Each structure stands twice: as C-alpha cells, then as structure tokens.
Amino acid sequence: MSFDAIIRSRSADLAIADGVIAAREEPGALGDDAREVIDARGLDILPGLIDAHVHFNDPGRAAWEGWGSGTRALAAGGFTCGVDMPLNSDPPTIDAPAFEAKLATARGSAHVDFAFWGGLVPGSVEHMDELAACGVVGFKAFMADSGIDDFPACDDLTLYEGMCRAAVLGLPVAVHAESAVIVRELGLRALAEGRTGMADFAASRPVAAEVAAIANALAIAGEAGCALHIVHVSSGRAAVLVAEARAAGADVTCETCPHYLALTAEDAERIGALAKCAPPLRNAQERHGLRRAVRDGTIDYIASDHSPAPPRMKEGHAFSAWGGVSGCQTTARVLLAEGLTSKDLAFLCSVGPALRLGLPGGRIEPGASADLLLLDPSPTTVLTAGELEYRHPHSPFVGRPLRGRIARTLLRGRTVALNGASVGEPLGRFVRPV
C-alpha cells in the first residue's frame, strides 16, 4: 500500500494517508512506499499541541494580531490548534452574527486549526443557545473588568443564569477569576496616591482577589450544575482551592500559563509592561506552589493566554499599559526550560485541553488526525526577537535561554512548520467539540 508519508522514529513508524494516521508499526515494518519519508529518529513524536487560550483580535483589531501571524506563530511553536477567546475582536463573539464574522475572517488565513470560545456578558444569556449551535467549546466570562469596553464583567446574576444555561447545553463556563471590588478599589487607591509601577500594579491585584473570585465561581457553578474552568491560575493558593473543590466532587478544571511558571513579580519589575498580565506575576513562593500543582496533576492543562498588542500600547505607566503577554510561539520551549518533559507537554498541552473541551486531538494512533509535533527536547538556545512570527515581535522571553527545537509541525500530515519557522499556505480548519 502506498502512503502520503511515513515517519520513522526510534519506537515505531507512522504511516499517513488522506490526513490521518493509517498505521503504526514496528520500526522498518512499513518500508518506503510513500511520497515522503520523514526521518524522525532521535526526535520525540508528540500529538499536535492545542493552545486553548489565545487572543487573535480579528476581526476588528487585526493591528494587534491577526489570524495569519498568530497561527503562523502557533505552528512554529508546535501547535496544530488554537482556541480563540471571545473578546478583543470587534465585535466580540457573544452572538451568532459575531461568530460568523470571526469564522469568515479566520477561514483562508489560519495556518493551524482553530476553535472558538463564546462570550458570556450581561445581556448575552439569550444568545448562548445559538452560539452552542455554531460550535463554541464553551463560554468565557470575566469576574472583573476585562479591559475591553464591549466585553463587560459579569455580575453574579448573569454568571448564575449563564451557568444554568451552560449546564443545559452541556458546555463549560470559563472564568477570569479576580474579585472586581478588590482590584477596582485597590487600583483606584494606587492611582490616587501616584503609585503606578509594576509592583504597585501587582499589589492592587493580590492573591486574595483571585482566591475570593474562584470561591464565588465554585459556589455559583455548584448551584447551577455547571462545568467550571478557571483560566490562567497564577498562584499556588488558588490551585489548592481548585484541588479541594474537585476532591469534594466539583466539576472544575483549571489552566495555568508558561509566564506564571517561569517568571516572578521581580521579573515583571525588571522587564516592565511586556510582562504585565492579569492576574499579575506572583512572588517566588506562589510560583513554587503553582509548580507543585502542575506536578501533582491539579493543573489540567497549560495555555499561553497569548494577548498581544502593538508596542505603543505597552507604553506608559503600569496601570495604563496594555495587560497581556505574547507567548503562544514559545510555550513548549519555556516549559521544557522549566524542567517539564516531552511526556508532560503531550499531556498538558494536547491531551488535557482535548479532553476538557471535547476537541479532536491528543492521540497518536490509527484513525486519528495526523496532527503531530516532532521535537528535539535537548538543545538550549537564547530566544531572539527575529524568531518570533507575531505581528509585533516582542515578548518577555526574548533574551532568555529556552530549551528544545520544534523540528517539524504537521497538520493532517502536511508540514506547516520546519525547524521552528512556519512554512506553506494556510491549511487551518474550524473544529468544534465532538
């Protein structure tokens, strides 16, 4: 039988036909009857990575990041799917027309597959059914100011009614968990007193604000019978709260991000606004607790929360500068530099998000889509801005030693990145929960 491609590795040979894995056999058993033979001996073969939390901003704010540049960066980083958040695009994805506008923009531009989160904001509960029919993976809500005027935070009643509807629809609600009252009032006090540095910004959004919001979200989700997901957990104490709730029977999962595992509040003071995010980077003790939560399985998956902006929006004091880290291209290499293994990457950046969001992926077996990452986990190199495929090539990780080489990324058996750089035309398709 002739195949489109055969990948030779140390442990097995994979045959690819019509975009799927057609066979997995002992090394050498498949011969050479293929249009392309890829020698992956010496490399680790992982299922294509899934970034379940990106902001590509298009339509409406393509000057921040667009589908072309953003998905090229994903491919270069070993990802074969990105799940876009509902805010930052204009209009935000809070109803079916907005969903269709985003879908039309992404089609023909995306270099990897893509899925969408729907939005939950005051007044949008009535549109949740139509978004579910469109194929969103779930609904995203902010419990504090999002920074985007047309995506306001949810009050408790909206969150409750939205969670009740999500439970009926069988989809999770993801929350940005920070107490609106705590972060608003502490921020206003800091500004009134002229305290506008990165340390002042971090102090205005303490771990207590994160823990309080998670506790509130857990209580509401429990009453509504809703599956809950906590995005970008930033602290060890917040992760412990999630673990305790899960042990008590709550249907709750959580993610963290590479920047929370690799950087601290002290790094943020040194780097400046390129490291501004919300929740903010924490101290070394909280980071240690978060790393422990990754090791013990409390963290279900890791996502980048890639939230880019033009350089001019990173200017000014810490409260006025745009809050968001550019990071979707470097996730795998940052995590490897932090001591994670290829096996860890496969679970935390592929299997985990696929399971929680019901997306295809996370498997290397006959019948699965041939979405693959060929990885050399060994080399360490310093990240340069020239490697970045973002529309605006800046990142808090530039100048930092990272580990690993993304040798090749394959989407349905076709190479979309080679040696850490994207190649070829856009091949991405919309995917929905299965």
Describe this structure in words.
- With 434 residues, the chain is an alpha/beta fold.
- The protein is 32% helix and 21% strand.
- The protein has helices spanning 67-76, 96-106, 128-134, 156-169, 180-192, 198-203, 207-224, 236-247, 258-262, 265-271, 284-295, 331-337, 342-357, and strands spanning 3-8, 13-17, 20-25, 34-39, 44-47, 49-54, 79-84, 113-116, 118-119, 139-142, 173-176, 228-230, 252-256, 301-302, 372-382, 401-411, 414-418, 421-422.
- The strands form four sheets. A six-stranded parallel beta sheet has the order 9-10-11-12-13-14. It has a five-stranded antiparallel beta sheet with strand order 5-15-16-17-18.
- Strand 6 (49-54), helix 1 and strand 7 (79-84) form a beta-alpha-beta unit.
- Helix 4 packs across helix 7 (207-224) and helix 7 (207-224) runs parallel beside helix 8 (236-247).
- The chain starts with a strand and ends in a 12-residue tail after the last strand.
- The mean pLDDT is 97.
Produce a short descriptive summary:
By secondary structure, the chain is an alpha/beta fold. The chain has 13 helices and 18 strands.
Helix proportion range:
25-40%
Describe the global form: globular
**CATH topology-level name of the largest domain:** TIM Barrel
Strand content: 15-25%
Low-confidence stretches: none
What Rg is obtained from the alpha carbons, in whole angstroms? Answer: 21 Å
User: What is the CATH class designation of the largest domain?
Assistant: Alpha Beta
The description of the largest β-sheet is: 6 strands, parallel
What name goes with the CATH superfamily of the largest domain? Metal-dependent hydrolases
State the end-to-end distance: 31 Å
Integer count of domains: 2
State the secondary-structure class.
Answer: alpha/beta
Strand order across the largest sheet: 9-10-11-12-13-14
CATH architecture of the largest domain: Alpha-Beta Barrel
Residue-averaged pLDDT, rounded? 97
Enumerate how many helices there are, as a single number.
13
